[in-house]
Amino acid sequence: MAIPSHELELETLHEHEGEQFLGGLLGGLLGEGELEGELEGEFEGEFEGEGEGEFEASIIRRVYPDAMMEHMAHEAMAAQSEHEAAEQFFPLIGLAASKLLPLAAKVLPKALPKIANVVGRVAPRLTKSIGKIARGLFSNSRARPLMRAVPTIANRTVANIARRVAAGQNVTPQAATRILRAQAGRLLRNRPQCASVIRRSRALDAHAHRVGTAQPVRHHCSCGCHK
Questions:
Q1: Residues 81-120 pLDDT 10s
Q2: Model-level pTM?
Q3: Is residue 219 part of a domain?
């Protein structure tokens, strides 16, 4: 059975240049002097307790209008420049947050006002960081298929921030960037998971094209769809 071209490109990237490229890309999200291992001690494993998987799975499965978000990735991949690619993801964090909050109102009603406040406060910083990831991935033709992972990274980041706020943590814009970086690193360095996310993204984007559920686009999509 033939391997899809996007998976061949992904495999090539990971085997020959992936770690160096991703290390530079993710390292660029942090300021000078922030250590590669800082996140491991501060955040990793902190919310691995009972209920976390169920909370995240319910968010990922039920909340986000996935086809809309995946169509953003489709347009970013078809962009004419790094700046245009980043621009396609400008609404991403706001959209993820707007779909998370109704679920948080049901699951974590007492924490909802604080979650909404914190997510709103860190959203500009997260959007800027998402743009950096998009520009970096767009700049490498073999890495470009990984742009389809960006909506999943955004989803997981916002869900992670919501859990932390609900647990009483103070999530600053800087901490939110580190959470985003951790989620991006965890996904982009996992080749099988990346391939699965890319397949899912392509399927959802195809659904968006068929039924017109994607976001209203600011220009004609390269595939010829007109929303």
A1: 999 999 999 999 998 898 888 888 888 889 999 999 999 9
A2: 0.73
A3: no
Task: Find, among 52, 57, 88, 42, the residue nearest to 221 by Cα.
Answer: 88
Residue 26 near residue 18 (C-beta atoms within 8 A): no
- Give the count of domains, the chain: 1
Degrees, nearest 5: CA angle 184-188-193? 115
In a domain, 3, yes or no: no
From residue 71, alpha-carbon distances to 13, 107, 155, 204 in Å are 23, 28, 15, 8
At 14-71, the pLDDT tens digits run: 554 567 777 777 776 654 334 344 443 443 444 344 344 544 444 444 434 677 888 8
Range of the domain at 94: 53-211
Domain assignment of residue 119, yes or no = yes
Domain-located, residue 22: no
